[in-house]
Amino acid sequence: MASIELNRVSKTYPGGVRAVQEAALSFRDGEFVVLVGPSGCGKSTLLRMVAGLEGITGGTVSIGGRVVNDLPPKDRDVAMVFQNYALYPHMTVRRNMEFGLMRRRRHGGLLARLLRPAEAAAERRAIDAKVDAVAGTLGIGPLLGRLPRALSGGQRQRVALGRALVREPQVFLFDEPLSNLDARLRIEMRAEIREMHRRTRATMVYVTHDQEEAMTLADRMVVMKAGVVQQFGTPEECYGRPANRFVAGFVGMPVMNFVDGRAEGGAFEGGGLRLALPASRWPSAPSGPVALGVRPGQLRVSADAAGAAVTAEVRAIGRLGGRMDVVLAVGATRLVARIENDARLREGAPAGVAVDLSAAHLFAPGEDGARLPDAQDRR
Ligand code: ADP
Prior knowledge:
The chain is α+β, with helices and mostly antiparallel strands. The protein is 27% helix and 32% strand. The two termini are 35 Å apart.
């Protein structure tokens, strides 16, 4: 088992693309960390630098207290699982799974068989037993004799996981391993990866562009944008205490509503809304240009518009079974509310809107504006 330290790690590709800028992160031994962010934010580059598949242009990477910058991948005791499985097509599932083990023993393997046949046979049995055990837990035991082309996508992904598992490395690295699978299978495999983490207690670093996947898998997540770490925290922290507007908008679905406006004299005004900003929540009484951030679940919508603080028009209703997403227009401002089903709401009809500010946020202006401190930050 091993911790991972990234000390101001940077990567500039030839040509000048600054894919990762001064990432300073410390992953605990046995932790499940997810690197998440939009496509091109540098998460795969960061992972590949930990794996040793990409050179590091600045800073140091340590695994288990040892700087590994100059160590080749095979000497880092990491196992990597990719999106495209990378199974050997001409080898059976069993051969694919034991391949990493055999390779590690190659030197002396043939000699051992010649000189110490009993020992070699014992080792062979140990490898078989390990592959059988891992295949059993992943439910692919009956497939061990097949070639990869005779497997479904989900089965291939299980084999790729199994191949990493039998090696019992200190660190598992995953690069979007589930993105080729359909939605249902993805959810099933996520649960399996979590379970695998619980059982092995290995350090795992997992890359995905999918914030929901990050939220469900991570002990802590690293949210990245344009090569720069925006926040490193638990899913609850990134969701409930976002560092800035980018994180607030990236984490959580449906996406947080943002309304640009001004704070003045204990009130927010902008986008057709005027709301009191309780001093109990914002003791610092912000003033000047701000953006208000409200999650769809923090809006209440009523078909009874008369007397409501804010009047809106219902533009569209998306039905989700028990709940519905309601797109509202307040003047030129669009808001999305996620509410319990309300049969009285009609597209094109007016509605009353109330904003629950108890979990809302204020941000400095601009698309990456920092979250302004509130009462919770003082505790
Ligand atoms: P992500 O995994 O978040 O999608 P990447 O780490 O793959 O992002 O890429 C980060 C940035 O580095 C992107 O702008 C990408 O175009 C660039 N990049 C990735 N690989 C290379 C490469 N081999 N040469 C030059 N630029 C690259």
